[in-house]
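Office hours follow-up: a student asked to see two folded examples consecutively, so here they are.
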Amino acid sequence: MATISKPSRVDRAFERVEGALSRLEKAVQARGAAAGDGGDAAALRAENDRLQTVTEEVKGRLDGAIGRLEKVLEG
C-alpha cells in the first residue's frame, strides 16, 4: 500500500526559492523590455523629426517645381 507523505521542509523551501527566482526573472525581463521600449521610442521620435524635416524640404521643392510648370503652361 502506497503512503502519501507531506513534502519535507527542505522541499517546501526549495519550491519557495524556485517561485521567487521565477518572479525575479519575470521582473527583470519586464524591466528590460520597458527600458528597451524607452530607447526605441526615443529613436522613433528622432527618426520622425528627421522625416518631418525631409518632408518639408521635398514639399518646398515640389511647390517650386509646380510654380515653374504653371508659368510655362501660362506661357
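And the second, which I mentioned at the end of office hours:
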Amino acid sequence: MKRAITLLGVFLIILLARWIAFPNSVSGTTSHESPVQNTTEIPDIESVDNGENAFSLAGEGLRKFIRYSGFRNASAGHLIMIGVGLFFIFLAIKYDYEPLLLVPIGMGIIFGNIPFFQADNLNMQIGIYQEGSVLNYLYFGVLKGVYPPLIFLGIGAMTDFSSLISKPRLMLLGAAAQVGIFLTFLGALALGFHAQEAGAIGIIGGADGPTAIFLSSRLANGVNIIGTAANGDPIYVKNLIGPIAIAAYSYMALVPVIQPPIMRLLTTRKERLIRMKPPRAVSRLEKILFPLIGMLVTTFISPNSLPLLGMLFFGNLLKESGVTKRLADTSRNSLIDIVTIMLGLTVGASTQADRFLTTDSLVIFGLGALSFMVATAGGVIFAKVMNLFLKGDEKINPLIGAAGVSAVPDSARVVQSVGLKEDPTNHLLMHAMAPNVAGVIGSAVAAGILLSFLL
C-alpha cells in the first residue's frame, strides 16, 4: 500500500510540474515546435531593470529545462517499452532465461526509450537514430552486419562437432528444421510484406539471433530502395531490424516453454523411449578436417553465407587445431562477451516506441512464433520419417529432431529434459547436439540462399 501511495505521489508531482510549465498541455494544445521557435525574445539588458532581467532569464531557463526533460516528452509508448525492457530483465534474473542476452537487450530497450525532445532542425545526439550519438556509432555494427560474424567466431570456438561427425545423417534433421523459415517467408509475402522484408522475417524460425540480425541488416534495413512512387520518389524497404531481432532472441529464450508441448504432441511414448547407440569416438584428424571441408562445401553451395559460416568454421579450427589455444580462448570468452554486450544493447535501443509499437511488429512476432513452431515440428516429423528407413538400434529418437533449430545448446537441453521425464536413464543430450549444431549451419545456409535471390 505504501509503495502504491508513493508511486501515486510521484505521478502527481510530475503532472503538477507539467501543468505549471505548460498549462495548455493538459488540454492537448501544447505545440511541439522546436524550442528555438518557442523561445520568447530575451529583452535587452540595458532596457530593463537588472532584477527583472534576472527573473526573466531564470523563468525562461526553467521552462527550457522542463521542455527538454524526459517527463515533458514522455508518452505512453515510451512507458510501455520501458516496461518491456524491465520484463526482459526480470525474466533473465528471476528465471534464468538467456540472461547473457536478455539483460543487455532489456537494458537497451530502456536506453532507447528514455524520452527526450526531438525536432526536425535539432539533433541532440542522444537517440540511436540521431547521427553522431554514441548509440548511433555502436549501432553501425548492427546496420553493417559486423557483430553477427564475430558472434559466430566465438560460437565456432566453443562448439564440439564430434556428435555430428560421428553420425553425419543427423545433419538432415538440422536441414529439415529450416522448413519453418521458408514457409514463414511465403506467409509474410501473403500478408503484404515486400520480398526482402518477408525473407528477413522468415529467418526468425531458425531461432538464431545473430543470423536474424545479419539477414535483416541486409534486407530490411530501411536503406534499400525497393521501388519508385508515382511522383518519382524512391520507396525504401522498412527498417525491421529491431522487431526481428527482439522476436528471434525472445523465442530463443522461450525454447523451454514452446518446444516441449510440440514434441509430446507429435511423438508417442514408445518413440520417446527409443534408445540410440552411443556416438563413435572421433579422431583429432577428423575434427581438424571438418571445419575446412564444412566451410568449402557450405560456402560453395551458398556464397552469401560466407561471413557467418566462414567465421564459424574458422573459430572451430582455432579450437581443434591445438596450436592456437590463446586465439580460441579469446574468441569464445572475451571477444564474444564484448560483442554480445554491444549487440544486445544496440538491438534493444533500436526499439524506440515510435518505430517498434506498430502493427508490423505484432505481425512479425506472430509470424516468428509460427515459424519457430513449424521448425520444431519439421525436425520431429522428419526424424519419424527417417525411422521408416532405419532398423533396430539404428533408429532415431524423434525428440532430437526438435534440436534442429539453431538455439544452441538450449534446444538440445530441452530434448534431454523431455527424454529424462520419460526414462530417467535415457540421456539424449549428446545425440541432440548433432542436429543442434547442424541447425546453426542450416540457418546460415538458408540466410545465404535468401540473400542470393532477394538482395
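Two things to take away from it. The first helix runs from residue 2 to 21. Residues 141-454 form one domain.
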